[in-house]
Amino acid sequence: MSIVRKHFSVTGTVQGVGFRPFVYRLAQKYGLFGLVYNTTQGVEIDIEGPIREIRAFGQALQTPPPSAHIENIIARLLPPKKYRVFRIMESARGANTTLAIPPDLDVCKDCARELFDKNDRRFRYPFINCTNCGPRFTIVESAPYDRARTTMRRFRMCKACAKEYKDPTNRRFHAEPNACPVCGPQLTLLSAHGTKISARDPVVKTAALVRKGHIIAILGVGGFHLVCRADSAQTVAKLRVRKHRPHKPLAVMACDIAHAKKFARISSDEARLLQSSQKPIVIVSKRKNSILAGTIAPQNNKIGVMLPYTPLHHLLMQELNMPIVATSGNRSGDPIICDTNDGFRKLSGIADYFLVHDRPISNRCDDSVLSWHSVLKREIFMRRSRGFVPLSVRSPFSFQKSVLATGGQMKSVFAVTQGTNAVMSQHIGELEHADTAEFFEKNAELFEKLLDAKPAIIAHDMHSDYFTTRWALKQKNIQKVAVQHHHAHFASCLLDNKMPRNTKAVGVVWDGTGYGTDSTVWGGEFFYGDYGGVERIAHLRPFTLPGGEVAIREPWRIAAGILDDMGIAPKSDLERSVVAAKRKHINAPLCSSAGRLFDAVSALLGVCTRTTYEAQAAIELESLATRGTSTRTYPFAIDTINTPWQIDFHPIIAAIRADLRRGIKKETIAYRFHLTMAEVIAQTASRIARRQKTSIVALSGGVFQNSLLLGLAWRKLEARKLVPLFHQQVPSNDGGLAVGQAVISYVSRSTRKN
What we know:
The chain has 754 residues and is α/β, with parallel strands linked by helices. It is built from 22 helices and 30 strands. The radius of gyration is 27 Å and the shape is globular. The mean pLDDT is 94.
């Protein structure tokens, strides 16, 4: 019988997901000997036996455990070593790290069953886990992923847990967070003043407090949630006042899908997303006359829903049997809080009680937010965080040198590249706040450590006032590359669709704010180009932002400025003073932003004249538009005489005003405006595509998180035989900028060298 030895090097998400015991069981099944161990690059398998069994082993290796994800397997034949047994070895460290740490995982079915089994020793234990579920990224401190390099190292396993941990045939073999009520983390319920609340079961007591209308700060897997009952307008109003969040929608946690369908319209695709192992918040349609307080998502026909994803959530929701608000535990604009002491310091004025635990969180991680798009027939990322980080985005080409891309100022996310991977950080937040900036700095250091990466390039936005730009320029002994904001959006979309390096495409990049190469605010852009560079072919007609940043919070100012450009006199004294300052060019920057145009129309229709959260005016306008219908578009003009072309939207505004005077329903006007803007996209993009002899049109920017606009534009582009591209794993908003910055900086650097 011919004995052969084969070595397999496996990369991907293959640590902390039961991959080594999976390999062990395969070796036992096929009667093979050898060893398997973790490295900083992935998993190494050295195995020998009869050639037929080795082949069968190699084929079976292609179907790993459900939480594992194999990116690559390299196999090579070696001289036999005459192994006598098969062993799972200790992890090895080495150079050229590939991040193989999995994201935090939802409770698996086996653990959920044990959680509610009175005869199980982990009955109602809120930290139950195994190799198929539980915390991963949020507890890891360095690679490779072993207990000694996680925050679980402080908990010494009891004999029963240690036996499971060492048994390759056990579901908890090398489950690094493995613990039980005897040896593991514990819950404590505290008052807002830090006094321990006596309770036989803290979860049962917490549920009782929620029912009474109290607000509870609950420390979960990635940080605090602020929790209260979602069916009480009075309680929701109290939370909004305390958190200084008057209008921004609040996420709701339901017990299960059947429960969620009582207050939301959920398709089968949306249900699949809600029940996936990542357990994200999914944006779905509200049901009318549901039990939810109307103030959960005011002036919005959508709502963010999630299901329990930790044992603690499952226990709490079983006790409550009612929907609860579960919003990020922070003050408005700050990052999610993940430390108990920090929580008391910052949330004691918001929460009445604190349900905390003693398992330290190494890496805070907010909930991911997705939606399902019925036209594109796929999920759309609004926020990529818990459940998806630190999974990498694959590039169609290899980065020979590592790049650290710092992203933008809003919805901050950075990225580190390595080989064909771009590893995105979790959602960090708005960098105008000191705590968020500190979070960014610490996280950048952490990712470099986890990846053992030494970036050769730092990519940053062109805007000199962004924190990320200032931070990048302070770094020493490294090349810095400034990247134009909208080019980064465009490149991000191309990479997300794995377009080859030489792909030429039309780029439609619509967002709220981005610094342009002419020192004005861009945001309604049409490009032609590739990763290496773009030409600005067209844009929306420039208009002013009277009052600068204030105009974003008070979109009536933008509307007044546009009407003044059209020769229409302001009506009120306040408008007259704003227009007077605008005419004198006092704090009235020019912009071509599609996002700000949507804001202006929202104000013009009286939908939203003042905002308290980002994109509120546009979100409420879209919500109104979904209740309308029309086949008629408003007139507009494309000036192709000058370069770049300008899309004149003044005829659109004039037609909207005429419809208002005629008494046309506002929902009809709102829908016509969306239909018209989709036509603007289709007509302009198709003209550019014909001129440049391409069919590819990449759509990017935060405006395209408007589901109605995206669907209308998509259909119109396809009707013109064009090939539209949209983001798949990366958000189209500023949360996806870093990936685009990374590829642009690398390509432009390598192009200059050549």
